[in-house]
Design brief:
Number of helices: 6
Strand order of the largest sheet: 1-2-3
CATH topology of the largest domain: Rossmann fold
Radius of gyration: 22 Å
Number of domains: 2
Structural class: mainly alpha
CATH architecture of the largest domain: 3-Layer(aba) Sandwich
Largest sheet: 3 strands, parallel
CATH superfamily of the largest domain: HAD superfamily/HAD-like
Order of helices and strands: HEHEHEHHH
Shape: elongated
Length: about 130
């Protein structure tokens, strides 16, 4: 977390979110009421807390069920780990593609081994993700 804002007037909340996004930043907005709705919709991620207004909890992508923000750091750690693992899985799944294309186009490799290699790499990429979740 690079920065945070608090005690902001309702009309300025969405403007701050837009300004930060224009600077290329991802914005997480934590809201609890009707005055937060526009900013929550504009944010990359919106969070609310159980027991707040129904519109805030309905709009939020994440709702903390224990009535406080104590798990906020854990949420960011989970998100960063997931992002890292998804990137690794994508690389594992797509790496054989150019190699296979070269094999088909220039080395006269049969199509069956190419399909097998693609399926193995795809399964390995998926397997990495499943392994990480458990």
């Amino acid at each position: 977390m690079d920065n945070y804002f608090y005690e902001v007037l309702p009309q300025d909340k969405a403007k701050i979110v837009e300004k930060l996004q224009q600077q290329g930043k991802s914005v997480c907005f934590i809201g609890d009421g009707v005055n937060d709705v526009v900013a929550m919709k504009k944010a990359n991620v919106s969070i609310s807390i159980r027991g707040e207004t129904s519109i805030a909890t309905d709009l939020a992508q994440v709702v903390f069920m224990d009535d406080n923000l104590s798990h906020l750091c854990q949420l960011f750690d989970i998100a960063n780990g997931l992002d890292s693992q998804l990137r690794k899985s994508l690389v594992i799944s797509l790496t054989p593609l150019p190699i296979n294309l070269i094999g088909i186009l220039f080395l006269d490799v049969d199509l069956v081994p190419i399909i097998v290699v693609n399926q193995i790499s795809f399964s390995t990429g998926i397997g990495k993700k499943i392994e990480h979740d458990n």
